[in-house]
Design goal:
This is tRNA (guanine(46)-N(7))-methyltransferase. With 73 residues, the chain is an alpha+beta fold. The protein has one domain (2-72). Helix content is 33%, strand content 19%.
């Protein structure tokens, strides 16, 4: 599951929902430590290789994009 938002509160809500299901989903930094994440577990760049229009616009405005990826176990 890949999720991203430029709204920190939304990103936290999504993160909290998946982190609460840790018996079902594991964060990508646990599964693959080669994926670059910051100290809070946000993925540093879009792993999909194609940026959304929202992502492009938000970054051009100076916003940070908060990304998380989980794998079902």
């Amino acid at each position: 599951v890949f999720m991203q938002s430029d709204v920190l509160e939304v990103a936290h809500e999504m993160r909290d929902q998946f982190d609460a299901c840790s018996s079902i989903f594991k964060h990508i930094d646990i599964i693959n430590p080669d994926i670059p994440c910051d100290s809070e577990g946000w993925i540093l760049s879009n792993p999909m290789g194609i940026r959304t229009e929202r992502e492009i616009h938000a970054e051009s405005e100076g916003a940070k994009i908060y990304r998380r990826m989980y794998q079902k176990i």
